[in-house]
Fold these 3 entries.
Entry 1:
Amino acid sequence: MTLRITIDIFSGRPNPVIELRGKDARDALQRFAPARKLRSDERRPIPPSTLGYRGLVVEQIGTRARNLPQPVRVANGDLFGPGLAHRAADPDFEDFICGSTGPLRRLKLGARFPELIRKEIARLLELRYRYPWKKWPWPLINRCRCAPLYEPAWWNVPARQPHNNCYNYGTNYRTDTFAQPGRAAGAMYTALTCAAVRPAAIADQLIDSPGANNKCPAEGHLAALVVWPGTDFHWYRKGRNGYWSHKPGSTAVTNVDNSGNLIADPRTADRGGYTDFCTFLVVMHGHVKIN
């Protein structure tokens, strides 16, 4: 059998994927086997479409264990899936996979990545217990007549959601290629910094607008670029109702930040590790070309 383990962490870049086979797969399966049901006070879901680490997604390829649904998400030692809310046999399964001596090292993501994952696992646990599980009001603020409508249902379907990332959503341009800034123009970014990703997006015909100050353009719509230094990039877009929304990687479109608050200004939103606000950019409809 084969286990495909996706580290669900990035927004702009494709997530790292590890495949374990044979004995390695069987050993891992024993570690994250369901041990006991979570008590009611432990059943803290993973906040939807948060920025940063969102757990491990484990898929069984070929022969499958009967006691596990497909797929299973592992977060802070808890297992979630259809009909599944259990504690893993090894609550430190994520450390086993992502630690400096674990299978993650095969991907050669850099010496600092295991420590980054360790901090992100701790951040996710804290977030799960403080996230405000409630409905949000929708007071109108500055309307943007040319901006796209907030229509998450269009993006959040199997044919589109996994194949389009934050850049696709930020530009309102479906490509099904997990689009990368600059790739269509032959000028793809070479570093995960504002200074590298911004000109790559400009090469795709986005218009750099650092003085926009969160105000709607007369034509097109406003997007915003942020960076997790050396790790990833992320995009937001301003909607017709004046609020911002985004799509973290292959996850669902959302209109809230990491604290569960509506986003009036991405500069002040809870962005997790994406600490560098780079710039506002204007997307002129029909002019932008991404891939």
Entry 2:
Amino acid sequence: MDRICILKNPVQKYAWGSYTAIPELLGEQPDPDAPVAELWMGAHPKAPSMVKGTGGWDSLVKLIEEHPEEILGNRAASKFHNRLPYLFKVLAAAKPLSLQVHPSLSQAREGFRRENDLGIPLDAPHRNYKDDNHKPECICAMTPFWALNGFRKVPEILSLEAKIHVIALDHLLHKLRDQPDSEGLKAFFHGLMTLAPDVKKQVTKEAVFKARDHADNNPVYHWMVALADEYPGDIGIYSPLFLNLIQLQPGEAMYLPAGELHAYLEGVGIELMANSDNVLRGGLTPKHVDVEELLSVLNFEERNVRILSPEPDSMGEATYSGRVKEFVL
């Protein structure tokens, strides 16, 4: 491996993807019947990049296994056990993604081992842990990019809810008022997620009806309505009320550590993460939702989201300040 090689990178055709953004980036004709959500560049076993060699195309996973120090360098090969430590994506969201969280490294290792011991196939739809790695990530906007990231301050949540007040949630809101901290947030969120299906349907219908009156003046209520249009009756439509609503401008980025509840809503961005596909979902999806496992890994601390701008260096590059050992954008 003493030369630069061409990569052929897999795409993921999820229903929430854009029909045009990634095909246009690749110089391909869009398929009107196939939205393209993600372009993966890396060595994750689920969808590794292919490398063009003299004898055809080989998996990047296979080549790194055969030439770890040549491809990764001695230091990275030793530090990350001969594995590429990051996964690089282009993400194109025409519709909102699921409400989700990623586990820490210890949580991922324990969960992956536990599900292996239970004999759950890696491709089983109810499997939570697809590998034994954590998935901290950084998203950098290529277009205006809307997202939810981390719990709001409790006074903000109560103020936003008051404008569309739903009486059926009073018992949960009283808990939050009485205990305006991480434990109160946990009790509120757990209560919301475990409402009976008929109650979820009732409260979401009422909340969205009231949110429409404010949707033109406040993006929080606009996104509640938009989420309800995509996922009617899903309790996740409440998420703009209790999570920080962010709009990144092109070139801005934000970091998502393990344990932070988040959702990408709309836009095209570069996503750089540890080499993992572990996702625990809480709503806004037809896929498997495991509320108890989600609660076990969530961070319920209120937080303000730090928007990252590129910081130029003396080498003519610009970087976004990183917090993990696996990658720097």
Entry 3:
Amino acid sequence: MQQLLERIEFRDPTRAQREVAQIAGVLDPELRACLDSLLAASPDPDRALTHLSHLSDKQFAFSRETLRDLVAVFSYSRFLSGELLQNPQWIAAVEDSDRVWTTAEYQSALAECFAARPAGAADALVLALFRRRHILRILLRDVLGSASLPEITEELSNLADAILETSYRRIRSELVERHGTPRYRDERGQLAECCMAVIALGKLGGQELNYSSDIDLMFVYKANGETSGPHAIS
């Protein structure tokens, strides 16, 4: 990999030389040649090389595909780089990176995560880890050119929709268990269940969400009323 040090003007050549030697020790000749090409084409070879050297300390099983994906993430996203260094197994578990996932597919995958979560793991942690893993998947599709811009914004929106829907249903279920079902009297004076809708505005409403977008939401409920449980809210 000496040629790599000659081809790329690293910001810190001394550190790069040390890191090249470190990672070369865990790669076979074919993978070293692959890494040369990937780093030469990277917009931030210094950061990519540094993070790869950290993974080499963890006896990570590199392959041509994982090298490609790791260099892409390490070069383009500081946030996901940090996540991958803590959870390097994510890169080998990237699923179905050649197509757009629907909201229903994300909801189904998220339900499986909740079913398999460790005892005591908070809902917020399950949701955060799920979002980061799938943002990783979407970013790779984006950076590696396997998806168009409309597909990327659509999939980011589908992911957000699934998380919102799942969060709403879990929160509502918890509140119903504690306080009872929210009810109101309809125009005939009969008790009816009070429903609620979460309406997405802005970029999410237009299925044009990007990586750093805020989401603008409107919460609409059917009518004023009260709950039916022992700890009723009126």
